[in-house]
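@channel sequence for tomorrow's demo:
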Amino acid sequence: MSHALGQLLDLERYPLHDRTSPARRAAVEQARTELRAEGCAVIPGLVRPEGLAELRTEILDRKDRTHFSTQVINPYFHFHHNDEFPERHPMNTFLERSSGFIPGDAWDDGCAMDVVFRADDLTDFIAECLEIPELHCYADPLAGLTSNILDPGQQFTWHFDTNEFAVTVLVDEADEGGLFEYVPAIRNDGDEGFDDIQAVLEGGREGVRTLDLRAGDLQIFRGRYSLHRVSRVPEGSAPRHAAIFAYTAEPGVIGRVERTMQLFGRVLPEHIEAEERRVRSDALID
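structure tokens (generated this afternoon):
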């Protein structure tokens, strides 16, 4: 079944197709202001209730394809002790990550998730919010279009993203817990910010922001530089489901083999080929 974008997104409140619209310009400016200040912007209610129902159904229909995993990791997705650093250090502080991902190859062409992900009007809007010339759908066949699943008892602990930015839509809220929390720009290309990171890993709340996300909100987030997590969904709660739309500034980008294995439990030939020709864009620890 193919879907029209207007059936899924609120194009009256956010006329993404009309670059001359004052409402669209206002939404872009607001997002730019939030991204400059906090590295995070929320477009509230972008997905219509009817669209949410479609996304929810598609996630539930594919939930049996979720790759669930539980690991004890540091913020860089490493799980081995590093003797080059002291014991009390982010490299050697390991916390539980327990969650699941529905992989990119689970989604059919033309399904609601795919239509939203690949919509040029949405991609152009997000690029303007990020103040970059253009965006491309992440070419990774597993991590480009995904859904993150947090069932009761699970959490996605403090970490950094390998991509500079991420775009998500909250589809199902947990009854409690499952809160998105982040510390904006806790590190940069010249400073890993280890002391500040360690304080947060030990329970400190200095600089921590908590988003009051609602189902249907779209979030644009610079997760390469901002430490972030989704807090634990308690037992007895409804699960938390989010759609993840991954984009890149350059075309043809494929994810790292190690991170792909951690999140999806497998890699494809495309990942092996990309790893052999990879060039790093920064010197930050992954």
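heads up for whoever presents: The longest strand covers residues 95-102.
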